[in-house]
Amino acid sequence: MNPWFDLARRSLSTQNNVRQWINRVRIVPASQPLIPPVVEKAAQQAIYEGLLQDKQIECVYRARGPLGEDRSYILNPLALVQKGSIIYLICTRHDKTEVQTFALHRFKSAHVLDSRALHPVNFDIDEYIDSGALGFRVDFNQPTEMVDLELIMNEADALYFTESQLSKEQTITQISEELFKVSASVPFTSQLVWWLRSFGKKIIRIEPVNVFNAVHEIE
């Protein structure tokens, strides 16, 4: 997406105050920073054009892993989402109605077709993101489900959630002189599991049991 941001910067270059603002603002990743994967530029351009023109794209996509096979698809582009250092195309395949994510750096080639892209009825990108789909499913055979998460921790660690909430309905309850319970309804995703692991021993108890088992890798 950098060429588009560069264009915006150039268009603002004559406005000194705006330029100073851009030079004084930085975004620092909350997690371990990673070098972005290399994206095939011609494929990226075709994907962006297909999304802009609302046209189908024909592509060759490399499956994940060193032994991943190249596969050809016709895709209906719906949206682009950047998560960390990776850009994802949100789309449907011409032979399936399920909304899927394709990482841009795995496209080997792509070109725009003349045919109009087909959209799922009532698809909304914000609702799709809020569903936890981009957190990636714990079980790829099942859709992402919501769980009533409960975390037991001491007061100092629970204070973190008073500033950065898990959800709008989150509650924090004191359950003893030293312990607090943080409760929230959240999507049960791999991202949630990895994030909970980062707390280590700061979380004294995790409920429900299926989330606890996933965090501690208990079958």
UniProtKB/TrEMBL annotation:
Domain WYL, by residue range, is 45-112
InterPro entries for this protein: CBASS_pafABC_assoc_protein, WYL_dom
Superkingdom classification of source: Bacteria
User: Which Pfam families has this protein been placed in?
Assistant: WYL (PF13280)
Mind telling me which PANTHER family this protein's record contains? Answer: PROTEIN PAFC (PTHR34580:SF1), PTHR34580
Give the protein's recorded name.
WYL domain-containing protein
* Species of the source: Acinetobacter lanii
